Amino acid sequence: MSAIYFKEMKNYFRTMTGYGFLGFFTLIMGYFFISQNIVVMNANYNETLSGALIMFLILIPILTMRSFSEESAQKTDQLLYCAPVNVSDIVIGKFLAAASLFLIGMLITGIFPTILYNLSEGRMDTGLTAVGCVGFVFLALCFISVGIFISSLTDNQLVAGAGTFAVIFMLLMMDNIASSAPIGNTASLVFVSAIIILIAVYIHTSTKNIAVALLFAFTGTVIAGVLFLIRSNLYDGAISGILGWFSVLARFENFYLGSVNVSDVIYYITFCTLFIYLTVGTIEKRRWS
Questions:
Q1: DSSP class of residue 260?
Q2: Which of 213, 225, 238, 287 can bridge 204 by disulfide, Cβ–Cβ 3.0-4.6 Å?
Protein backbone atom coordinates (compact mmCIF):
# COMPACT_ATOMS: atom_id res chain seq x y z
CA MET A 1 0.00 0.00 0.00
CA SER A 2 2.79 2.43 0.92
CA ALA A 3 4.45 1.92 -2.49
CA ILE A 4 1.20 2.78 -4.28
CA TYR A 5 0.67 5.77 -2.00
CA PHE A 6 4.11 7.28 -2.61
CA LYS A 7 3.88 6.53 -6.34
CA GLU A 8 0.62 8.46 -6.54
CA MET A 9 1.97 11.36 -4.50
CA LYS A 10 5.00 11.60 -6.80
CA ASN A 11 2.73 11.52 -9.84
CA TYR A 12 0.67 14.41 -8.48
CA PHE A 13 3.74 16.62 -8.22
CA ARG A 14 5.50 15.37 -11.35
CA THR A 15 2.62 16.82 -13.31
CA MET A 16 0.56 19.97 -12.90
CA THR A 17 -2.29 18.08 -11.21
CA GLY A 18 -1.00 18.54 -7.69
CA TYR A 19 0.13 22.14 -8.11
CA GLY A 20 -2.99 23.07 -10.05
CA PHE A 21 -5.25 21.52 -7.44
CA LEU A 22 -3.52 23.29 -4.55
CA GLY A 23 -3.45 26.57 -6.45
CA PHE A 24 -7.17 26.54 -7.29
CA PHE A 25 -8.02 25.22 -3.82
CA THR A 26 -6.22 28.13 -2.17
CA LEU A 27 -7.68 30.63 -4.64
CA ILE A 28 -11.28 29.52 -4.14
CA MET A 29 -10.96 29.27 -0.36
CA GLY A 30 -9.35 32.73 -0.35
CA TYR A 31 -12.20 34.18 -2.37
CA PHE A 32 -14.86 32.88 0.00
CA PHE A 33 -12.76 33.88 3.02
CA ILE A 34 -12.65 37.47 1.81
CA SER A 35 -16.31 37.60 0.74
CA GLN A 36 -17.83 35.68 3.66
CA ASN A 37 -15.61 36.89 6.51
CA ILE A 38 -13.42 39.88 5.76
CA VAL A 39 -15.78 42.08 3.73
CA VAL A 40 -18.79 41.53 6.00
CA MET A 41 -16.64 41.37 9.19
CA ASN A 42 -17.99 37.96 10.16
CA ALA A 43 -15.95 35.94 12.68
CA ASN A 44 -17.58 32.61 11.76
CA TYR A 45 -15.07 30.80 9.50
CA ASN A 46 -17.59 28.04 8.83
CA GLU A 47 -19.31 30.47 6.46
CA THR A 48 -16.23 30.21 4.26
CA LEU A 49 -16.35 26.42 4.39
CA SER A 50 -20.04 26.38 3.52
CA GLY A 51 -19.56 28.71 0.55
CA ALA A 52 -16.54 26.76 -0.69
CA LEU A 53 -18.53 23.52 -1.04
CA ILE A 54 -19.20 24.46 -4.63
CA MET A 55 -15.53 23.93 -5.46
CA PHE A 56 -15.92 20.17 -4.94
CA LEU A 57 -17.78 20.04 -8.25
CA ILE A 58 -14.60 21.00 -10.10
CA LEU A 59 -11.64 20.11 -7.91
CA ILE A 60 -12.61 16.57 -6.90
CA PRO A 61 -13.04 15.41 -10.54
CA ILE A 62 -9.64 16.95 -11.35
CA LEU A 63 -8.12 15.17 -8.37
CA THR A 64 -9.56 11.71 -9.01
CA MET A 65 -10.33 11.32 -12.72
CA ARG A 66 -6.90 9.92 -13.58
CA SER A 67 -6.71 7.49 -10.64
CA PHE A 68 -7.58 4.36 -12.63
CA SER A 69 -8.74 5.63 -16.02
CA GLU A 70 -5.22 6.77 -16.94
CA GLU A 71 -3.75 3.39 -15.97
CA SER A 72 -6.36 1.66 -18.13
CA ALA A 73 -5.89 4.01 -21.10
CA GLN A 74 -2.12 3.58 -21.08
CA LYS A 75 -2.41 -0.20 -20.58
CA THR A 76 -0.24 0.01 -17.46
CA ASP A 77 -3.03 -1.33 -15.28
CA GLN A 78 -2.12 -4.94 -16.08
CA LEU A 79 1.40 -4.37 -14.77
CA LEU A 80 -0.09 -2.87 -11.63
CA TYR A 81 -2.55 -5.71 -11.11
CA CYS A 82 0.16 -8.32 -11.64
CA ALA A 83 2.29 -6.79 -8.91
CA PRO A 84 2.49 -8.69 -5.60
CA VAL A 85 -0.06 -6.45 -3.90
CA ASN A 86 -3.73 -6.83 -3.09
CA VAL A 87 -6.27 -4.88 -5.11
CA SER A 88 -7.58 -3.39 -1.87
CA ASP A 89 -4.10 -2.04 -1.13
CA ILE A 90 -3.99 -0.43 -4.59
CA VAL A 91 -7.36 1.24 -4.13
CA ILE A 92 -6.70 2.39 -0.56
CA GLY A 93 -3.25 3.67 -1.56
CA LYS A 94 -4.73 5.81 -4.33
CA PHE A 95 -7.52 7.00 -2.03
CA LEU A 96 -5.08 8.00 0.71
CA ALA A 97 -2.86 9.84 -1.79
CA ALA A 98 -5.81 11.91 -3.06
CA ALA A 99 -6.93 12.52 0.53
CA SER A 100 -3.40 13.62 1.48
CA LEU A 101 -3.30 16.17 -1.33
CA PHE A 102 -6.61 17.57 -0.12
CA LEU A 103 -5.30 17.75 3.45
CA ILE A 104 -2.24 19.64 2.22
CA GLY A 105 -4.66 22.18 0.76
CA MET A 106 -6.42 22.41 4.12
CA LEU A 107 -3.10 23.01 5.87
CA ILE A 108 -2.16 25.77 3.44
CA THR A 109 -5.50 27.53 3.86
CA GLY A 110 -5.22 27.09 7.62
CA ILE A 111 -3.68 30.57 7.54
CA PHE A 112 -7.15 32.02 6.91
CA PRO A 113 -8.76 31.12 10.27
CA THR A 114 -5.54 32.25 11.96
CA ILE A 115 -5.85 35.64 10.27
CA LEU A 116 -9.54 35.78 11.17
CA TYR A 117 -8.80 34.98 14.82
CA ASN A 118 -6.33 37.85 15.03
CA LEU A 119 -8.55 40.31 13.17
CA SER A 120 -11.54 39.46 15.37
CA GLU A 121 -9.40 39.90 18.48
CA GLY A 122 -10.15 36.38 19.68
CA ARG A 123 -13.92 36.51 19.09
CA MET A 124 -13.74 33.65 16.59
CA ASP A 125 -15.04 30.40 18.07
CA THR A 126 -12.05 28.07 17.59
CA GLY A 127 -14.04 24.99 18.65
CA LEU A 128 -16.76 25.71 16.11
CA THR A 129 -14.14 26.27 13.41
CA ALA A 130 -12.31 23.04 14.24
CA VAL A 131 -15.51 20.99 14.09
CA GLY A 132 -16.50 22.67 10.83
CA CYS A 133 -13.13 21.82 9.28
CA VAL A 134 -13.48 18.18 10.37
CA GLY A 135 -16.89 17.99 8.68
CA PHE A 136 -15.45 19.65 5.57
CA VAL A 137 -12.70 17.03 5.38
CA PHE A 138 -15.16 14.16 5.89
CA LEU A 139 -17.31 15.52 3.08
CA ALA A 140 -14.30 15.76 0.77
CA LEU A 141 -13.27 12.17 1.59
CA CYS A 142 -16.73 10.95 0.57
CA PHE A 143 -16.49 12.74 -2.77
CA ILE A 144 -12.94 11.45 -3.32
CA SER A 145 -14.13 7.87 -2.78
CA VAL A 146 -16.90 8.47 -5.34
CA GLY A 147 -14.44 9.95 -7.83
CA ILE A 148 -12.03 7.03 -7.54
CA PHE A 149 -14.89 4.56 -8.03
CA ILE A 150 -16.07 6.32 -11.19
CA SER A 151 -12.49 6.47 -12.49
CA SER A 152 -12.33 2.68 -12.15
CA LEU A 153 -15.32 2.30 -14.48
CA THR A 154 -13.77 3.87 -17.57
CA ASP A 155 -10.49 4.35 -19.40
CA ASN A 156 -11.41 7.88 -20.45
CA GLN A 157 -10.36 10.62 -18.04
CA LEU A 158 -12.87 13.12 -19.41
CA VAL A 159 -15.71 10.65 -18.92
CA ALA A 160 -14.48 9.94 -15.39
CA GLY A 161 -14.32 13.65 -14.63
CA ALA A 162 -17.76 14.36 -16.08
CA GLY A 163 -19.26 11.38 -14.26
CA THR A 164 -17.75 12.47 -10.95
CA PHE A 165 -19.07 16.01 -11.49
CA ALA A 166 -22.58 14.66 -12.15
CA VAL A 167 -22.63 12.38 -9.10
CA ILE A 168 -21.25 15.05 -6.75
CA PHE A 169 -23.83 17.49 -8.07
CA MET A 170 -26.60 14.98 -7.35
CA LEU A 171 -25.24 14.35 -3.84
CA LEU A 172 -25.14 18.08 -3.13
CA MET A 173 -28.71 18.39 -4.40
CA MET A 174 -29.97 15.25 -2.66
CA ASP A 175 -31.98 17.16 -0.04
CA ASN A 176 -33.93 18.94 -2.78
CA ILE A 177 -34.41 15.70 -4.72
CA ALA A 178 -35.62 13.87 -1.61
CA SER A 179 -38.05 16.63 -0.64
CA SER A 180 -39.68 16.55 -4.09
CA ALA A 181 -39.94 12.73 -4.27
CA PRO A 182 -43.40 11.06 -4.26
CA ILE A 183 -44.62 10.09 -0.79
CA GLY A 184 -47.23 7.50 -1.80
CA ASN A 185 -46.66 3.91 -0.67
CA THR A 186 -47.26 2.48 -4.16
CA ALA A 187 -44.54 4.66 -5.67
CA SER A 188 -42.28 3.68 -2.79
CA LEU A 189 -42.89 -0.03 -3.47
CA VAL A 190 -41.88 0.46 -7.10
CA PHE A 191 -38.79 2.38 -6.00
CA VAL A 192 -37.74 -0.30 -3.49
CA SER A 193 -38.29 -3.03 -6.07
CA ALA A 194 -36.12 -1.12 -8.55
CA ILE A 195 -33.33 -0.92 -5.97
CA ILE A 196 -33.57 -4.66 -5.34
CA ILE A 197 -33.30 -5.35 -9.07
CA LEU A 198 -30.31 -3.03 -9.42
CA ILE A 199 -28.55 -4.80 -6.56
CA ALA A 200 -29.31 -8.13 -8.25
CA VAL A 201 -27.79 -6.83 -11.48
CA TYR A 202 -24.68 -5.76 -9.58
CA ILE A 203 -24.46 -9.20 -7.96
CA HIS A 204 -24.65 -10.82 -11.39
CA THR A 205 -22.01 -8.55 -12.93
CA SER A 206 -19.71 -9.10 -9.96
CA THR A 207 -20.09 -12.86 -9.53
CA LYS A 208 -21.29 -13.96 -12.98
CA ASN A 209 -23.71 -16.18 -11.07
CA ILE A 210 -27.15 -15.58 -12.50
CA ALA A 211 -28.78 -18.08 -10.15
CA VAL A 212 -27.73 -16.11 -7.07
CA ALA A 213 -28.77 -12.84 -8.69
CA LEU A 214 -32.21 -14.18 -9.64
CA LEU A 215 -32.69 -15.70 -6.20
CA PHE A 216 -31.86 -12.38 -4.57
CA ALA A 217 -34.17 -10.45 -6.91
CA PHE A 218 -37.04 -12.92 -6.43
CA THR A 219 -36.68 -13.15 -2.64
CA GLY A 220 -36.27 -9.41 -2.24
CA THR A 221 -39.29 -8.47 -4.35
CA VAL A 222 -41.46 -11.10 -2.66
CA ILE A 223 -40.53 -9.83 0.80
CA ALA A 224 -41.14 -6.23 -0.32
CA GLY A 225 -44.53 -7.24 -1.73
CA VAL A 226 -45.56 -9.14 1.40
CA LEU A 227 -44.59 -6.22 3.62
CA PHE A 228 -46.61 -3.93 1.37
CA LEU A 229 -49.70 -6.13 1.76
CA ILE A 230 -49.29 -6.53 5.51
CA ARG A 231 -48.13 -3.05 6.50
CA SER A 232 -48.28 -0.69 3.56
CA ASN A 233 -47.75 2.28 5.86
CA LEU A 234 -44.10 1.23 6.13
CA TYR A 235 -43.66 2.54 2.61
CA ASP A 236 -45.04 6.00 3.29
CA GLY A 237 -42.26 8.46 2.46
CA ALA A 238 -39.80 5.61 1.86
CA ILE A 239 -38.37 7.25 -1.25
CA SER A 240 -37.50 10.42 0.65
CA GLY A 241 -36.05 8.36 3.48
CA ILE A 242 -33.83 6.29 1.21
CA LEU A 243 -32.67 9.27 -0.81
CA GLY A 244 -32.11 11.17 2.42
CA TRP A 245 -29.53 8.58 3.45
CA PHE A 246 -27.34 9.84 0.61
CA SER A 247 -27.64 13.44 1.80
CA VAL A 248 -24.04 14.16 2.71
CA LEU A 249 -24.92 17.82 3.32
CA ALA A 250 -27.42 16.96 6.06
CA ARG A 251 -24.57 15.52 8.14
CA PHE A 252 -22.24 18.39 7.29
CA GLU A 253 -24.79 20.86 8.65
CA ASN A 254 -24.28 19.38 12.11
CA PHE A 255 -20.52 19.95 11.87
CA TYR A 256 -21.21 23.43 10.52
CA LEU A 257 -23.19 24.17 13.68
CA GLY A 258 -20.39 22.79 15.86
CA SER A 259 -22.05 19.49 16.76
CA VAL A 260 -20.13 16.22 16.52
CA ASN A 261 -22.46 13.22 16.40
CA VAL A 262 -21.13 9.68 16.40
CA SER A 263 -23.80 8.72 13.87
CA ASP A 264 -22.51 11.36 11.43
CA VAL A 265 -18.93 10.13 11.76
CA ILE A 266 -20.06 6.52 11.24
CA TYR A 267 -22.10 7.61 8.23
CA TYR A 268 -19.13 9.26 6.53
CA ILE A 269 -16.83 6.32 7.28
CA THR A 270 -19.47 3.90 5.97
CA PHE A 271 -19.98 5.99 2.84
CA CYS A 272 -16.25 6.00 2.03
CA THR A 273 -15.92 2.31 2.83
CA LEU A 274 -18.83 1.44 0.55
CA PHE A 275 -17.35 3.18 -2.49
CA ILE A 276 -13.88 1.83 -1.79
CA TYR A 277 -15.42 -1.65 -1.65
CA LEU A 278 -17.24 -1.05 -4.94
CA THR A 279 -14.00 0.13 -6.51
CA VAL A 280 -12.16 -2.97 -5.31
CA GLY A 281 -14.93 -5.14 -6.80
CA THR A 282 -14.70 -3.33 -10.14
CA ILE A 283 -10.92 -3.71 -10.30
CA GLU A 284 -11.09 -7.38 -9.28
CA LYS A 285 -13.54 -8.03 -12.09
CA ARG A 286 -11.27 -6.30 -14.60
CA ARG A 287 -8.22 -8.09 -13.22
CA TRP A 288 -9.64 -11.54 -13.90
CA SER A 289 -11.54 -10.78 -17.09
A1: -
A2: 213
For 89, the domain range is: 2-180+246-288
In a shared domain, residues 47 and 19: yes
Question: Do 213 and 171 belong to one domain?
Answer: no
- Residues 131-171 have pLDDT tens digits of 999 999 999 999 999 999 999 888 888 899 999 999 999 99
Q: Are residues 104 and 164 in the same domain?
A: yes
φ/ψ region of 73 (left if φ > 0, alpha if ψ in -120 to 50, else beta) reads alpha
Statement: residue 122 has pLDDT above 80: no
Half-sphere exposure of 169 (CA within 13 A, CB side): 9
Q: Is residue 58 located within the same domain as residue 92? A: yes
- The CA-atom distances, in angstroms, between 196 and each of 32, 97, 162, 169, 275 are 42, 34, 27, 24, 18
The DSSP result for 170-232, as a single string, is HHHTHHHHHHTS---HHHHHHHHHHHHHHHHHHHHHHH--HHHHHHHHHHHHHHHHHHHHH-G
Domain count, the chain: 2
Compute the average pLDDT of residues 203-219: 81
Q: What digits encode the pLDDT tens for the residues 225-272? A: 888 888 877 777 777 877 877 788 888 999 999 888 899 999 999 999
The reply to whether 241 falls in a domain is no
Same domain, 212 and 86: no
Question: Do residues 200 and 116 share a domain?
Answer: no
Mean pLDDT computed over every residue of the chain: 86
Q: What is the pTM of this model?
A: 0.87
- Rounded to an integer, what distance in angstroms lies between the CA atom of residue 215 and that of residue 219? 6
Please, are residues 1 and 12 in contact by the beta-carbon 8 Å criterion? no
User: Are residues 86 and 200 both part of a single domain?
Assistant: no
The answer as to whether 265 is a domain residue is yes
